[in-house]
């Protein structure tokens, strides 16, 4: 496969935020370097040897069926907007705490330059619990999809603002061929319309504005009602309280992805349980 190309035409080059353009440029170089050390055939063999896939969508549906919140609890050390979030940082202990708190799934950052993540975080956290795991990273090349499965990921993130429709469809179909789920992330109505053209049930609605990095959960209140009943809207970012969870549920988003709020708590199991039981 050819070296990845930074994608700025997803919804028109002028509409892609500068911060995302910078991240994608760095990711292009990073992936090219990793591809130079691990060949396509090697990464495919590693993906084939990975542990069996856990049912990401099924885990969320089970929580919803129980009348609880489908919580995707995130493990991350830092973020561009929040700086260093948790130190000391123990992914296996956090995974076990989230499982104890009733989370349906995990989301684990593997991006190094902007989130201080690494693949070992995902591998260690997944080994410590029975929860399905989302690899949270900037996916721009098919090689990364095989890499995600090799890590043990059960789901990948596709950010519609970073991808053309053609590349999003290519990455999604590859993930599905490896039995992984796909969370297609959107920030506005135009991206939602594009995401609904993909063959995935999971539609992530990110409440964080990629230009200002500010969050407003009204974004999910606006977009979640537009998601068809056969899809699962997942409200992301800015969710901190039981009242926030109930607002998301009222809009139709019974699944949420929460990271920084949980990472800043002393008792992450109790904090997760509070959100799971909010409905």
From TrEMBL:
SUPFAM superfamilies: Ribulose-phoshate binding barrel. InterPro entries: Aldolase_TIM, Indole-3-glycerol_P_synth, Indole-3-glycerol_P_synth_dom, Indole-3-GlycerolPSynthase_CS, RibuloseP-bd_barrel. Its EC number is 4.1.1.48. It holds the Pfam family IGPS. Pathway: Amino-acid biosynthesis; L-tryptophan biosynthesis; L-tryptophan from chorismate: step 4/5. It catalyses: 1-(2-carboxyphenylamino)-1-deoxy-D-ribulose 5-phosphate + H(+) = (1S,2R)-1-C-(indol-3-yl)glycerol 3-phosphate + CO2 + H2O. HAMAP family: IGPS_B (MF_00134_B). Belongs to the TrpC family. PANTHER family: INDOLE-3-GLYCEROL-PHOSPHATE SYNTHASE, TRYPTOPHAN BIOSYNTHESIS PROTEIN. This is Indole-3-glycerol phosphate synthase. It comes from Roseomonas nitratireducens. The lineage of its organism: Bacteria, Pseudomonadati, Pseudomonadota, Alphaproteobacteria, Acetobacterales. The gene is trpC.
